[in-house]
Amino acid sequence: KDDGSIAQIDTKWLARWESNPRTFQSPAVSNKPPCYVLSMFPYPSGSLHMGHLRVYTISDVVARYKHMKGFNVLHPMGWDSFGLPAENAAIERGVDPAEWTDQNIETMKAQLKRMGARFDWSRELRTSSPEFYEGTQRLFLTLFKEGLAYRAPALVNWDPVDQTVLANEQVSPEGISWRSGAKVEQKYLQQWSFRLTKFASFLRHNLELLKGHWPEKVINQQHHWIGESSGQRVTFPVRIAQPDGSLQHESIKVYTTRLDTLLGVQYLALSVTHPLVERLCETNAELKAFVKSVPSLPVGTKAGFWLENITAANPMIRETDENGTERPLRRFDLPIFVAPYVLGGLGTSAIMGVPAHDLRDYDFWKEHRPDEPIKFVIAKEDAVDTLNPPRTYSGKIPKTPHHQQGVLNENNGKYAGLSCFMGSKVFYETLKEEGMCLPTKRFKVRDWLISRQRYWGTPIPIVHCDSCGAVPVKDEDLPVILPKVKLTGKGGSPLKQAEEWVKTTCPSCGGPAERDTDTMDTFVDSSWYFMKFGQDPDPQFSQMPVDIYIGGVEHAILHLLYARFISKFFAKATGDQRFLEPFARLITQGMVHGKTFKDDLGRFLKPEEIDFTPEGRPIVSDTGSFCNVTYEKMSKSKYNGVDPTKCLEQYGLDATRAHILFQAPVGDVLDWDEKKIVGMQRWLAKVQNIARIAAVEVEFFRTTGSFSKFSPSQETDRAASKLMNELAIAIKGVTTSMEDVYSLNTAVSDLTILTNYLHATRPEEVGPQAYVQSVETLLKLVSPICPAISGECWEIIHGARSIPLEEQQWPDETQFGRIEAKSTADINIQINGKYKFTLHDQPIDWAGGLDPQAWAVEKVFETKEGYRLLNGRNIRKVIIVKA
Ligand code: ANZ
Ligand code: ZN
């Protein structure tokens, strides 16, 4: 039945959108310019929360606006559906993670639809579906074939009670397992990483391109996260004794930030992933066994493997010939070790060992060469920046290493006496000449460890074969389907239990082999999902970059960094510059805080523990004392959560959406106070009123064929042009906010101002044509924010068979003449009828369309005089007089 209620309007429009899904689809081929609006896809945790409602409202408003602006809008939605909560539910309640996930998706999808969001569901994806994770597996293999995915020992959090690997989020800051309460240990496991460091420089320097389009704060966070420090890459000549007695010459590059300690080098050490180590393993079974044993070694291990056949020469040792010229002297006297304490994927994966001045080197040296003296080269002296006269270090040699900066001591020959700074400089200049030293930047960011000893994730498409090593699964055998496994929460990788699945044949030699039993970090899924949306259903149609990406600032570092990395990889691999930066513009929305009630002791109160005074002040039911009211992050333990669906049901989708936008600028925290939603309801009621009046005029026109009931006069002309000016102001304001996104709150206030203006205007004052045109324009401006009521109003005026409002063109303010320049005024403040002072240059719409009395009092209080005059008084009436 058509009762005109909000609930009825919602039902009607939701049904209409549901039955015409194509309205929201983005055709692959279109002559409109493309616009890709994306909000970060949700994890299907159970139900939508207010934060979701906020971000999807923002992206929906932008998508609807862009559509009316004539763009071919892509506004897709999907589910980040792999991850830990599904696995935990499975362990705790024995449910199938797939089923649990699907159910949650169903609930949340219904909620998203309930808010009237204009999503293109034909492109819906979920990362846990084989169609999607096949793509994730292909991505992995592409990286693998490019040498950008590698396997190396890495540390994991190990729960010794449950015998399982824990995610960082499962470990308390004190290092206790959330799961079993045990003290978490660290353990080495062979794990897959992506070589993100290869793109670090690119990732850092391209942040420049994002300036002005991304929040400065996010750019800075990325900058710091990637980090950059400068040091030197020093080449050490190396000699390898071959089994036949011949000597092979090579070199090893180390990364150091302490070039000044160069003459104190006593050995070199390589990480187990160093290319030379991999090569030597082919012929050295003992070394191979050592590398294999590394994962089981404890953290901070001093273990090392001495490469007996290899020695290195310090490039800084020189000799002077009979003519007095100095030349490098290659004395191959430095031993070389493979040591787990040297990290792979960091610097050059090789270090120069300076036991005297580096603690880790000291410990290592003491372990492996306990009897050899330690060579100190730096003295704790004040810096003396002069070569002449050289000063000899005469202090005592300290027993423990120290790495403070001081001066080069007598062990530095003719360089003794130089400050560390000057020493570095001189060594650098000398070696640079010979091509043995290169200043390099090193990044703080590490390679991206993607192995998870978890079940609910994308299986790694690799087969391990004793004779062939890690072999990629053949193209035609993708996807590697995640097998069903009974989850217990104990043991290592759950996939190990799927014995049938694990056992396979080697794609390369056909021999018996085993599948990799790790799954990928879910950040891998989200590092490319936005490319998938652009591809489907037509692979030709790859819409990149995302024009506007909207999401929470909590993803400012990892997700965005990984997505940028993968995108850059594609840009490089394909030469397609559209992938260079995946998100042309980034909007980060603030959190939603809930109204929180506490008693005097700071205890959180449940709704049933609160009463209200007749004036509406909350009191503690038991004691009658006033509650402390604050706004805090919504959480179950604070009883301050709000269910989005309840809100949508109670107030309608339009008022809820408008309220969300109006309460705070997009980037700020939003204090959710439902009481204030009546303001939006009143506004929308006015919009409906105005539309009805316009409808009567249009009906009159339709039946009589003219608006001539009124004869225009000079007065109506003047009023009409004033109205046109109001329209132009509103169009300009709302359009600016839509483009800016962050100021969508002011779009709502601009709309309320225009509504109030129209509400106070009768058609005959301005002429019915001008009136109807204004109402139509108002509805177009309202449409992206409140699509149901505005759509309904449009139908009241134009009938159900007209082209719907959401398909209309966005209005252009220049249609309505130029905006009058004067938009501010001086306001005289009188108190008790006496002039007190003047507020200068107040905006003409000084009340922001809201209660002018409250506005005036607030303004007056903001001034010193006003505060002095009014504080403590009971203000009954304010009269505002423009000067
Ligand atoms: C010689 C030296 C002497 C060093 C000394 C330090 C003190 P930051 O400052 O954190 O960048 N290093 C280089 N690559 C490494 C790797 N892959 N794994 C472990 N350690 C590595 O650290 C730079 C220092 O860390 C480098 O400078 C190197 O040791 C070590 F008295 O070289 B130094
Ligand atoms: Zn094989």
From TrEMBL:
Pfam family, one: tRNA-synt_1
Molecular function, one GO term: aminoacyl-tRNA deacylase activity
Residues annotated as domain Methionyl/Leucyl tRNA synthetase: 36-172
Domain Leucyl-tRNA synthetase editing: 224-388
SUPFAM superfamilies: Anticodon-binding domain of a subclass of class I aminoacyl-tRNA synthetases, Nucleotidylyl transferase, ValRS/IleRS/LeuRS editing domain
Catalysed reaction, written as an equation: tRNA(Leu) + L-leucine + ATP = L-leucyl-tRNA(Leu) + AMP + diphosphate
Ranges of residues in domain Methionyl/Valyl/Leucyl/Isoleucyl-tRNA synthetase anticodon-binding: 723-838
GO CC annotations, alphabetized: mitochondrion
Keywords carried by this UniProt record: Aminoacyl-tRNA synthetase, ATP-binding, Ligase, Nucleotide-binding, Protein biosynthesis
Enzyme class: ligase
Gene Ontology process terms (BP): leucyl-tRNA aminoacylation; mitochondrial translation
Xref: PROSITE patterns: AA_TRNA_LIGASE_I
All copies of domain Aminoacyl-tRNA synthetase class Ia, residue ranges: 445-593
The protein's Enzyme Commission number: 6.1.1.4
Similarity remark: Belongs to the class-I aminoacyl-tRNA synthetase family.
NCBIfam families reported for this sequence: leuS_bact
Protein name in UniProt: leucine--tRNA ligase
Source organism: Dactylellina haptotyla (strain CBS 200.50)
